[in-house]
């Protein structure tokens, strides 16, 4: 697919489908010549209440231009198109264009930029929407649905001075879109294909393409490091566990380390899960997939930052040699853990990965994990649960969540919750009972990140969708890339 920024005014655009913004009750400014060329049909439609008042409402129709029938998609951006409205408008428009099987489209959504949001942001939103909506996962269907025929997306700006900003935005949007779709591919791949070994191979391939250092530690290496907690979870599976590290050096200073939970299938282990929706536990590696998606985007953008990825990946299976409730594990940190439920395995692999992460002398550690069903109860499928032991870091992540539209909501880490993890036999138990289940998982992790700025993202509710639209969402790649972007912009300013 080719994306181009150009200056062609809408009335001269020869693309097969034109995407035209409607701002409130008016056609966007800049469309008046096109409107005259259609004998006022466009403005008449809008006067008639099309395409509807809500941002993202669309009308796909045909108009006659120079005696020829042309497809247009009218899309409501809201009166003063803000970021959220433009996101809705862009994805609805992209969906309609792709469903309409156009081969080329001219997107004039940028006509509404400049009032409350910049050209760069607007271009990024449009590009990201087209990449996201063009995603298909049909590798495993013997009869593929016809592939999207769209090959050209022309994003139009109205003046030359805006071209550079639009181009920069385009790159941003494409990179985030590519990162998100990579994460979706990994998440959607079934557990019998997407094993820990598969994730390691994918990381190595990414490392090769993007020229970054990728290392894979095997069980024997982890044994030497004393990762008794991680290895206990891995024990019951015939798939060998892997600890994958990625190192991207694009700038100066201490790195941000992203730690991903990579359970390629979570059966619950001996504390076996019920059968309903158990297939969805193939998604329990979406934290790991997020780390890889962020690396894809960051390397594509060549951000001037230092970034490390640590992925702890294994299966959680019941077996004769699997770990059991009552077992006491010694983590790499030396702290001991009584296993009260083998289904609370995420924190057991993450605690050793967090301890290992210290080796990179991180400026910040952020772990990403489909950690608790309780987080889904607390926040539903809308917001990622955000925990942080540092105010500034929390603020920056929340800001990134806001601008990227990839919502997060802060949750507490108060010591009061530590009580619930008391064990009679070890330093701590691996579960804290039903009350505040997402929080007790987070405070468990906090015991392994004592002297470093750390945030934990519980993405159990946001990493994938169930039901008719079942599939990985690629979240929270947009939020994390935006966060790293902001960081890159700040260090650039300091210079
Ligand atoms: N991977 C699950 C969390 C999960 C559950 C994510 C449902 C998305 C949807 C995690 O390993 C788990 O099983 N957590 C348990 C913890 C409990 C045993 C304390 C849970 O949430 O039920
Ligand atoms: Mn589990
Ligand atoms: Zn799990």
Structural write-up:
This protein has 495 residues and is α/β, with parallel strands linked by helices. It has two domains: 2-160, Leucine Aminopeptidase, subunit E, domain 1, CATH 3.40.220.10; 185-494, Aminopeptidase (3-Layer(aba) Sandwich). It is 36% helix and 22% strand. It is built from 14 helices and 20 strands. The protein has helices at residues 32-37, 41-47, 83-99, 119-133, 163-188, 196-210, 219-225, 228-234, 286-301, 346-357, 373-379, 391-404, 437-446, 477-494; strands at 2-6, 17-23, 26-27, 58-65, 68-76, 104-107, 152-156, 213-217, 242-249, 256-266, 306-316, 328-330, 336-338, 364-369, 384-388, 408-410, 428-429, 453-458, 464-465, 471-472. An eight-stranded mixed β-sheet has the order 8-9-11-10-14-18-15-16, sandwiched between helices. Strand 4 and strand 5 (68-76) form a beta hairpin. Helix 5 (163-188) runs antiparallel to helix 9, helix 6 (196-210) packs parallel to helix 9 (286-301) and helix 10 packs parallel to helix 13. The protein is elongated, with a radius of gyration of 24 Å. The model has no long low-confidence stretch (mean pLDDT 96). The structure holds ligand BES, manganese (II) ion and zinc ion (ZN). Residues 266, 284, 341, 343-346, 370-374, 376, 431, 437, 460 line the site of ligand BES.
